[in-house]
Amino acid sequence: MSSEEDFDMPLLAADSRARYEWANSEKTKRRRPVARLFVKLSLALYVMVTAVLLMGQVPNPWSPAEPSPPPAERRFEESLLLTLKTGSAVLYNRSPVQLMHLSASRKAPANETRWHEYIPNQLFYSDAEEWVGDVHIRDVLQTVAKDPARPGDVFDEYRRLHSSLSNHQDPSASSKRGSESRGWELDKYKFLPLHADAARRFPDVKYTVSVEADTFLFWNQLVKWLKERDREGKGADELKMWGNGNLLAASLADLEYIMGRPSWWQDISFAHGGSGYVISRGVVQSTFGSDAQFENNATFLSYLDDSCCGDAVLAQALQERLPGWIPPYDESEPRFIGESPALFNFVPHQWCEAVFTLHGITAFDYVRLDRFRRTVEPLLAEDDYIRRADLWEALMPIFLRDPPLPLGQDPSGGLSIVTLDDETTAEECHEACVVTPTDDGECLMWTFDNSASTCYRSPTVYIGQGKVDFTTGYHKQRIDAMRASHDCSGRLGNIASLMAESHVA
Ligand SMILES: *[C@@H]1O[C@H](CO)[C@@H](O)[C@H](O)[C@H]1NC(C)=O
Ligand SMILES: *[C@@H]1O[C@H](CO)[C@@H](O)[C@H](O)[C@H]1NC(C)=O
């Protein structure tokens, strides 16, 4: 199934029209007697050949005596679709590496290794058409941007992007100055037309896997898991949507995320788009697949005008069309992760959970995670998955591998905030971590904000990002004890040193 079929069609149409015109030209009319003679000769030859074949004199080349071999078993990946959503304001900064990799994954290789990813069906969507190498990115807002009922100021950004691009200007350069929120508002309008287009191009795929340009997807891990789901019950025809479940609450506390305060708004649980999500054929066919106007439904479009988030409106639209259906995010939730490796919170009780995605990925993260994946996938048993513990083993700060205990790194991601009145120095913060447990368990690491003289202690661990004015320490013995208490720790050997070796392809 080629995703580029529609691009051949205008060419074919133009070509056949040219032939039609040629056939009606004066020159052709003058040649007709010659043409008739040719037709007669062909007919005679055809009758003769058919007669010979019927008498069984020669083997019929059109029906070989040997039964044709059974068609090769289709690979499960061929029943999946991957969609990637991006925007012109970010595409050129962070996506080219991913796009080149995905493009190379379209074909199954002659020599396969365990880390190879086979992603035959791919569709890319943005707010402007673009080609990156042989990857075609579609403008998914083309129709909605022309709809006079949509708020003009949001689509001013669409026009600005198109004006930049048609003048060969990088739109991300100007996006940095204050228009990020406009790009974000534009983004919410992409979800419904994206799935409508994907459902038209690939109506029969079992599962549609959707990610964004800053999602890292462990494709092979997800494929393994979906293959198991496909064998359960009615498989892909069950109503399923998996992802990172979030709640957009109607409570006052959350109103800042909702423009205005629409009266229809209720709590809505949805799969966070950036963390990646999966929709089953059952859901696609009973929504987008059975109503060509689903994406243009005025009710859903009015939700979009009022809402912050296209992923939330997608969930709402699906649920309104399938009354009583509750998407089972909890079946998959801890595996679709909404953070980047540095800011991800490694919670001890989820240490051995499988990982399908990470989010907020930079080009640097992408390169490192891809190296990690290629190292780890060949080591996994058939029924094993990449776990959070493996990420920690690969990416944990170097000083945790060897003593002594460090000072001077910052985990920076939202540590549970515990302000201790008396703490005035990093050393005292360190001491507080050693002697006083947090409300949620033993202190595994601490961060001291030197400028605010504030001490944060955490019962979980972060890889962290260096940050001026922060000092951080890890309680190495406790972290090691926690790691040792989980079976999955260390089962793949020393991942970090394997990643550093040159033999990994
Ligand atoms: C592919 O596999 C064949 C047979 O296993 C081997 O002879 C060949 O060297 C491999 N090619 C590459 C490029 O690895
Ligand atoms: C829009 O969707 C809602 C919810 O499924 C449905 O009740 C309504 O009839 C749809 N509107 C149109 C014009 O199809």
TrEMBL record:
<dbReference type="GO" id="GO:0016020">
    <property type="term" value="C:membrane"/>
</dbReference>
<protein>
    <recommendedName>
        <fullName>Apple domain-containing protein</fullName>
    </recommendedName>
</protein>
<dbReference type="InterPro" id="IPR026050">
    <property type="entry name" value="C1GALT1/C1GALT1_chp1"/>
</dbReference>
<keyword id="KW-0735">Signal-anchor</keyword>
<keyword id="KW-0812">Transmembrane</keyword>
<comment type="similarity">
    <text>Belongs to the glycosyltransferase 31 family. Beta3-Gal-T subfamily.</text>
</comment>
<feature type="transmembrane region" description="Helical">
    <location>
        <begin position="37"/>
        <end position="56"/>
    </location>
</feature>
<keyword id="KW-0472">Membrane</keyword>
<keyword id="KW-1133">Transmembrane helix</keyword>
